[in-house]
Amino acid sequence: MQNNKDIIIELNKELSSLTDLTSIDQLEVKYLGRKGLINKLLQKIKDVPVNKKKAYGQKINQLKNEVKRIIKIKKLELTNNKTDEFFDATLPGKPYPRGSLHLITSTVEKISKTFQRIGFIRMSYPEVEWEYFSFDSLNMPPDHPARDDFETLFIDVPPAPKLGKMILSPHTSSGQVREMWRCGRPPIRMVSIAKCYRPNWDTTHTPMFHQFESLCIDKNITITNLKASINYFVKEYFGEDYQARLRPFHFQFTEPSFEVDITCSICKGKGTIGHQKCKVCKSGWLELAGAGMVHHNVLIEGKINPEIYNGWAFAFGLERLIMIKIGLNNMRLLYDGDIRFLEQF
Amino acid sequence: MNIKITYNWLLEYLDTDASPYDIQKYLSLCGPSVEKVDKMGDDYVFNIEITSNRVDAASVFGIAQECQAILPEFGKKAKLKFDPLNDYKFVNIQKKYCNKNSLKVIIKDRDLCSRFTALVFEDLNLKPSPELISKRLTLCGIRSINNVVDISNYLMLSLGQPVHVFDYDQVKKSMMIMRRSKKGEKIITLDEKEITLSGNDIVIEDGEGRLIDLCGIMGGANSAVSNKTKSIILFVQTYNKNLVRKTIMTTGQRTEAATLFEKGLDEERVEPTLVYGGELLEKFAAGKIASQIIDIYPNPYFKRKSISVSYEFFNKIIGITIEPRKIKRIFTSLGFKINNLEDDRTKIVSVSIPSWRQYDIDIKEDLVEEVARIYGYNKLPNQLQPIVYLRQPPEIEKLFKIQSKIKYFLKYIGLNEFINYSMISKEMIEDSGLKTEKHLKLSNSISQEIEYMRMSLLPSLYKNIKDNSVKTRYNTAPGEKGVMRFFEIAKVYFKNSVLKDSPCREVYKLGIAVNTDYFDLKGIVEALYKELNINDGLGQMITNEIKIEEKNGVFLTEIDLQKLIDDYRQIPNYKPITPYAVIKLDKTFELEPKHTFQMIKKLAFQSNLLQKIEVVSIFRNKLSLRFYYSSSQKNITEEEAKRELEKI
């Protein structure tokens, strides 16, 4: 019987001259086939003395594995180097799922992180609210237009003593007095991002929307503090080349009150595109948010002494922010539940 | 509200060197926002937003007043050429009164009208307006009709006080009775619309009981000026703003006049409007005054309201020091009176509020706003408040953190997040086998689609799958079913049985819906539990308590988010790596209702040596399982493991 070493040398010699897979297959049959060399060697085991049978078997097995390994390597060499089969590296890879998050989710995350860095904590308050927290505590008298059927959604239950009717909170400011009560004593640095509801439904209004609210109460809080916080947010969220400006405005629960405008993202603040007026903005500015110094009546409702403490509040709609940022012109798409829209984000 | 005025018209009241674009820029920063300037021929049209508290500025004159205060801060000249509030007084026309054609006025309820004035004119010559008036009105978006009607509109735009004109001969028996409307009464207004009133609107009936005016909104068609009109009543009022607003809302008639009235107008501006109107009617329509001035003004504005503030207070709120001299200049230019002007040593400024700001300025912060805005918010520096450390309540921190973790995980394994309305329809509730009466219901919903506060996310998610299956997705061949795996995390709303601080119980839920199969959804939930390190302490899932429902090929599940938050472990339980041999044994079972995987598992885990079970294969009801046995103390033999397996 040939020893293993000789067989391997012979195999390598035969292999070296082969260049195609078909002849390698034939060689494989010669060695490993049913009537191949290795099987023939195995059949001879019956002639081996009993005490050597085990060693013989092991030896043949080693040989078999070695032959398999060598042929496999040779085959791999051929498939990789030779052009029998075309390997197209430009084909797409194996697909993995991607999924999507709602635009509101990613916006909420970004805003909360931005404010977290300047020491604000995110809080959460009821969406189904009492009139007291949404209006009375915010210096909005019972005859205020925002409180009527055309501006606020009401729940069909009898009103509660002192707290008034049950409503869907029309703004996140309902959390202001709740936060003052929770903290007891300033400093307060709160942000709240939540669903709000109003009875409007068109391309720029949905009956449910999201607002962001931030509230800062402490000793010696000034308009310059508010201005800096808004400026910080706008630069963080939109980018360094965006400007914010404050304009006089009117809200019941702040005094003074401001409207916050930012540089229009379409015309880059110029107000014109070519020789055409920008259709999106008002002379280069887009209205973004409302803000102001917390009204002293609100502090009093919050059981905070307005002679010692004061503060600022700042709020905006998330949908508007998103619409500005991605150039979306129909707000309803966010809540219409069309997968063709949602899966893009 | 927005108003339109022109630059040339403004220059009639204001002496300034500011260009229309200067005015746009500076006014927007410090006062009413000038949203647009359009050059039209030799004039410019401003489109200006007026906030609800500043209805006093909603006119050419009102904007001139603002300019006088704002423009000088930017180095521009701005001075009022004349002041209609001082220059147009009843005394100017006193000599022209006469007694014929007198008008009888009865006001039934004092609460309806804070000032009522009227003046009758006769011998009018109705013709087209002079070019100056018709052109300005056209530029401001008002159609020119004839000199008399145009004058009434011109007055409103000039001074911000709406004016109405009646045909005197159509006011029967020369009598006007102002009263509250009754429910169901009808009036045909100038625009030929028949309006049925809901009651409590302010109306006027004439001597024959005909309704001739829906006050604050629009006059009646029956007493309108026509080309036959010879005599008119010039009619200038201030009304109860809440009643006007109610009428706007119930009738849907939001005229320009109504928009002004609902904000509450300055009674002191009624007089100059009437006098100026007389002047224009005389000049452009040859009108002659034919009555006494009727002026019913029960609570005249005699004494100006005063507020005192320390100069220090301005600085404290604004954040920089503003010179007392500057503060005084700002107030004077806005028409406020400084009561202690002479006394320079005092640390306090006392100001009187002008009549047109009486409903707007109440507290010292209101005065701070006036100073800060005229000084210029743009000139203020940015100074961030001190950063303080505050502890976020741990339960809130966890709520947001884990919610976010779940959302990202589900996104990464291929699910799409949806946000649906919190309100759903009756149909969706009933379709899901839930009871509408358990839900909170809106009393003034604008659509049946959003009438009830949802108690489950599943009706919405089911609808999402159904709605989207009829849409063609770009990555799906026609007729092929696109795989849909959707989720939503949101609050659901439960009625409180007893009165509480928060009106209802709001509970966060996670809802998942797929259009694939039961085990796909179960696999998602199991993967999520694994991600959150939730297990029964033996490394086994406890997802069998999760209920999965099937409806028309959609598989749905809803999980209490708080449960996931409570069970979440940031780091899973540590298990020492055993140095001893693990014996793997396979066994095949026949599944039947009394012999489920769950039961086999339960029995198998009665063995202390069992580490885990794997499903090897399922064929029909044949389930092959692989059992991993080992001990943490010693090597066990295959026989020992087999004995454990036999116990099952």
Give an overview of the whole structure.
- The complex is a heterodimer of chains A (345) and B (648).
- Chain A is an alpha+beta fold and 345 residues long.
- Chain A folds into two domains: 4-81; 103-342, 2-Layer Sandwich (BirA Bifunctional Protein, domain 2).
- Helices cover 36% and strands 20% of the residues of chain A.
- Chain A has helices at 4-16, 21-32, 37-43, 50-81, 103-116, 131-134, 175-183, 223-237, 296-301, 318-326, 339-342; strands at 121-123, 128-130, 166-168, 188-197, 208-219, 244-249, 254-263, 272-273, 276-277, 285-294, 309-317.
- Chain A has a seven-stranded mixed β-sheet. A two-stranded antiparallel ribbon of chain A has the order 2-3. A two-stranded antiparallel sheet of chain A has the order 8-9.
- In chain A, β8 (272-273) and β9 (276-277) form a beta hairpin.
- In chain A, α1 (4-16) runs parallel beside α4 and α2 (21-32) runs antiparallel to α4 (50-81).
- Chain A is elongated and about 110 Å long.
- The two termini of chain A are 71 Å apart.
- Chain B has 648 residues and is of the alpha+beta class.
- Chain B has five domains: 2-82, Phenylalanyl-tRNA Synthetase, Chain B, domain 1 (2-Layer Sandwich), CATH 3.30.56; 90-296, Phenylalanyl-tRNA Synthetase, Chain B, domain 3 (3-Layer(bba) Sandwich), CATH 3.50.40; 306-378, Phenylalanyl-tRNA Synthetase, Chain B, domain 1 (2-Layer Sandwich); 394-567, Bira Bifunctional Protein, Domain 2 (BirA Bifunctional Protein, domain 2, 2-Layer Sandwich), CATH 3.30.930; 583-646, Ferrodoxin-fold anticodon-binding domain (Alpha-Beta Plaits, 2-Layer Sandwich).
- In chain B, 30% of the residues lie in helices and 24% in strands.
- Chain B is built from 20 helices and 30 strands.
- In chain B, α6 crosses α7, α11 (311-318) packs across α13 and α12 packs across α13.
- The longest helix of chain B is centred in the middle third of the chain and has 19 residues, at 394-412.
- Chain B is elongated and about 125 Å long.
- Chain B starts with a strand and ends with a helix.
- The mean pLDDT of chain B is 91.
- The interface between A and B is large, with 85 and 94 residues.
